[in-house]
Amino acid sequence: MPSGNRSAGIPSWEGSVRLLLCAVGVLLSVYALHVELSKESDPKYIAMCDLADSVSCSKVFTSRWGRGFGLVQLFVPVDSVLNQPNSVLGIIFYTLQLGLGQTASIRGALFLVVSSWVSVAGSVYLAGILVLVLGDFCVVCVSTYIVNFALLYTNLKRRHGLGAGKQKQKTG
Fold first, then answer.
1. 55 near 142, Cβ under 8 Å?
2. What is the rounded CA–CA span in Å between residue 61 and residue 16?
């Protein structure tokens, strides 16, 4: 996806892949938020991703770990505005990834990589909770983990490409 502010070092596929990954991430996060809010307002609500007792996304989203990674409530009341659903954090994350990905800044690329590492660490943490604590499989959750790992790869390639492009400018 060529544009005027693209650096020569950024892989040509990066813009299209970033758009696709961020769009999928936002859609998954919006769906997760919808499921959580629907289940909280109607306990009989059954989401499309609730396939069995041990394959239930609504069980995961409405669990303690579905808000603030289960950690925020250790510091603030459960109903605090700071204890947001993980899906809201996901919407913010993917929107920032998409927006910052439009710049050809090395600092921006570094922020993208660092925030991706944080998202991957969060994914590994939540995957552990999913398997070891909840004993559940969540299709939506696992899909977001895949998106996060793919974004990390994309951001590492971008950062490397910008660094290589800067080196070429210095020597060229």
1. no
2. 30
State what percent of residues in the chain have pLDDT above 90: 83
Alpha-carbon torsion angle 132, 135, 139, 145, nearest 10: -10
CA distance 72 to 88: 14
Amino acid at residue number 121: A
Which residues lie closer than 8 Å to 120 by C-beta, 6 or more apart? 148, 149, 152
Q: 140 vs 7, 37, 137, 150, CA distance in Å?
A: 34, 15, 9, 15
**Residues, the chain, total?**
172
For residue 166, name the pLDDT band (cuts at 50, 70, 90). Answer: low
Q: Could you tell me the pTM of the whole model?
A: 0.88
